[in-house]
Amino acid sequence: MINIELVKESIMLMGDFEYDELEAFSPFIDAAAASVFELVKDGSDENDPRIVQLAAAKAYKSIALCASENDGVKAFTAGSVSVTLDPDALGNAEDYYACALSDCSALISDQGFAFLGV
Fold this sequence. Notes:
Layout: H1 4-15, H2 26-39, H3 49-68, E1 75-78, E2 81-84, H4 89-103
């Protein structure tokens, strides 16, 4: 399994988060790591920095999508946790993900559509 702590470290850099802020997004982080892990080719290191970066970018994209769907709210506070995303967070998240996906092309299986005939 992909090391979740490494994924969180990357997300903190992408979104300028504090470690404690990421707890609220644990389901997104766990799902992204599991999803990317399923794509890792046999013989590839699941903790290769490119794989970790892909999992982080996928999780960050989900976090940014969630935040952008909150009726324009760009900040929220829950107890002592406060999260603020800049207006370009979703665009940045999509760019991070596209770049990470490109970097991992040799390490993951392509799960895209394949027309095999009739």
